[in-house]
Amino acid sequence: MTNNINITLNDTRYDLKKGSSISQALDILNINSDKPKLTDFVIALNQTFIPRSQYPNTQLQNNDVIELLSPMAGG
Amino acid sequence: MTQTEMNDGLKLYHREFTSRLLVGTALYPSPAIMAQAISASGSEMITLSLRRQDPANNQGQTIWQHIKQSNCTLLPNTAGCHSAQEAITLAQMSREIFNTDFIKLEVIGDDYNLQPDPFETVKAAEILIKDGFKVLPYCTDDLVLCQRLLDAGCQVLMPWGSPIGTGKGLMNPYNLQAIRDRFPTTCLIIDAGIGKPSQAMAAMEMGYDGILLNTAIAKAHNPVQMAQAFAQAVSGGRQAYLAGLMESRQTATPSTPTLGTPFWQQL
Question: Which segments in chain A show pLDDT lower than 70?
């Protein structure tokens, strides 16, 4: 039995510790490591909007899919 | 600003705006030109979107900084969504990050001409309105669809002039006039397809309340100058509508008085 789960964030797969919350996942992935940090973003988990206030309490499951979106030009 | 413009605001749900021109923020040669064009347009409401972003490529962040500095009211869109559920999720995400209930509802039904899906648009509008959103739906020039969107609680309708980015102008003036005539008190904005200031002016002369456009300004050789041209066209069209257009006639009628015409005896 593995202690890891596999999630997908914007089409990239990541291994995380079982029981990780969205907050922990963002810390670990550090949106993202050596790259500049995104400060303005929102998240949908499995196509459901997750308010920022719920990031610490939302536990990720194996095969979860996260969309992380930021402001962009639009018409 | 003329006296007429000061007393003739564009009302979108609870908010009133002086400018009747809404502009998009995409496709500009640079974020700086985008900012200058927005300023030149006089627009007080601008559209934007949410997308995945590579943190290493900060162009989205640069654009976002310029948008924030514009002090315009934000109108996030649901561009790219193909179902009511996708649009609802994106609207909820937009509400949190942009701190606004306004949403430009876009649910695409066909990728060839980017025609909105009427069924999914109505479905999404019903749910979003109940959730407290101020929905501005992008729709086709279909009278019955417009009625269904009003039934859903939309207070603003945004029928297309023609498909997004085509610049073909008012493709079906008859349908657009019918929508205007049928819903005389509803706020109607032409969204998409406007390519020239004259087309925006024609819509305003028809009695439309506003114009939303992006490509015609962003892809002009001089976007800032074109933004000014559209601002003047929208304002001029509105004033012409308020002034009341003459009725067209089939036969010529001299505008110069015929009484006292010289040389008439020689005819």
Answer: 1, 30-38
pLDDT attached to residue B149: 98
**ipTM for the whole complex:** 0.91
The pLDDT value given to residue B258: 84
Backbone angles phi, psi at B66, to 5 degrees: -65, -40
* Candidate list B11, B104, B130, B168, residue with the active-site label: B104
- The Cα of A23 is separated from the nearest Cα of chain B by a number of Å equal to 17
Residue B96 has its nearest CB partner, among A35, A52, A74, at A52
Structurally, what CATH architecture does the domain formed by A4-69 represent? Roll (3.10)
Buried b (16+ CB within 10 A) or exposed e, B87-104: bbbbbbbbbebbebbbbb
Residues B58, A36: contact at Cβ < 8 Å? yes
Query: Averaged over B72-97, what is the pLDDT?
Result: 98
Strand, coil or helix: what is B213? strand
How far is it, in rounded angstroms, from Cα B120 to Cα A44? 20
Q: What is the pLDDT of residue B57?
A: 66
Would you give the DSSP letter of residue B266?
Answer: G
Is the CB of residue A75 less than 8 Å from the CB of residue B75? no
Of B49, B54, B164, the CB nearest to A73: B49
Contacts of A65 in chain B (CB under 8 A): none
Interface contact flag, A73 B56, Cβ < 8 Å: no
Domains delineated in chain B: 3-245 (3.20.20.70)
